[in-house]
Design a protein that fits this description.
By secondary structure, the protein is an alpha/beta fold. The protein has eleven helices and 13 strands. The protein is globular, with a radius of gyration of 20 Å.
Length: 309
């Protein structure tokens, strides 16, 4: 496993001319580089995105063997939960050596998804209002993205009080519990009649319905979750049609990592993307503790540190 990570280059394959041993890199998702979407710098919508990133199998057969047995080790085209990982040139981004690898490691997926969904897909105007449902890594990143975009009213909805408090610290002007029976009314009141745009990170149909009702006329809702196969979203027609609403599916924040990750790093350098506030570090040996902390909500984004001799 491992789908977002960072490391130091130890070797380069044939044909890699713009990276050298010792370079610091961040790892992100893989893409083919040959389809229409890749050629138009939209690799998140690569025609073979699923085949490349999810089965964990390497094209042409396994490149790693242990005790004679083949190991797939290619999840997200790099499997960064390892002291050594084989990545592709298309899904590594070189960064300056003064930057903290163990802080910026999550930029390759969750953070670029949240910030990118706002800046690349929704594209709110300065002064617009924005609401996110789910204050996890992606949701809190979208709060920071909305602040960068200049949204004047930023709202987070979640069930965990600690995450709502963190959302406020990161730029949210409002925060509400998702189980509030009067949630829609409170959201519409807080936004002066409904939000200009929103983001759902939960993938829960009832939440998507609530989020749609919380938008003002001609509002846009971006959807980034990956719920179970067969999940269907629905909203009452009088909200969807009568208000001229838009739903927009978004993968990886509509980002092209070689372009967008450097942009995220600039926001980080300027203090506009304080990702250190949503991460906690664990040695790899405590991976189970890290998973439990993420599941119980006490940690938003655990980062594993790989130790080598």
């Amino acid at each position: 496993m491992g789908h977002e990570g960072s490391g130091i280059v130890e070797a380069c394959g044939a044909g890699v001319e713009d990276l050298s041993v010792g370079d610091h890199v961040l790892m992100s998702f893989g893409s083919c580089g040959d389809c229409d979407h890749c050629k138009s710098e939209e690799p998140a919508y690569c025609t073979t995105f699923r085949e490349i990133n999810f089965p964990g199998e390497r094209a042409g057969g396994p490149a790693i063997h242990q005790d004679g047995a083949p190991i797939g080790s290619n999840f997200f085209h790099q499997s960064s939960f390892a002291t050594l990982a084989l990545a592709q040139r298309r899904n590594v981004v070189k960064i300056d050596k003064d930057l903290p690898l163990d802080v910026l490691a999550p930029l390759g997926c969750g953070i670029q998804t949240g910030v990118g969904a706002v800046l690349n897909a929704i594209r709110p105007q300065a002064g617009d209002s924005f609401v996110v449902f789910g204050a996890g890594s992606v949701g809190l990143s979208s709060v920071m993205g909305a602040a960068i975009a200049g949204c004047s009213n930023i709202c987070a909805v979640d069930l965990a009080e600690n995450r709502l408090a963190l959302a406020r610290e990161l730029g949210a002007t409002h925060a509400f519990r998702g189980d509030d029976p009067d949630l829609v009314e409170k959201l519409r009141e807080a936004s002066g009649g409904g939000y200009h745009c929103g983001l759902d990170t939960t993938g829960i149909p009832a939440v998507v319905d609530t989020a749609s009702q919380a938008l003002r006329k001609r509002g846009m809702l971006a959807l980034v979750a990956a719920p179970a196969p067969g999940t269907r979203y629905s909203v009452e027609a009088r909200y969807m049609v009568g208000a001229g609403l838009s739903w927009r599916g978004v993968i990886e924040g509509d980002s092209n990592p070689p372009d967008f990750i450097p942009e995220l790093i600039e926001y980080y350098r300027k203090g506009q993307l304080p990702v250190e506030k949503i991460i906690a570090h664990y040695p790899f040996e405590q991976i189970n503790e890290a998973i439990h902390a993420m599941e119980d909500g006490s940690v938003v984004n655990p980062v594993l540190r790989m130790m080598q001799d």
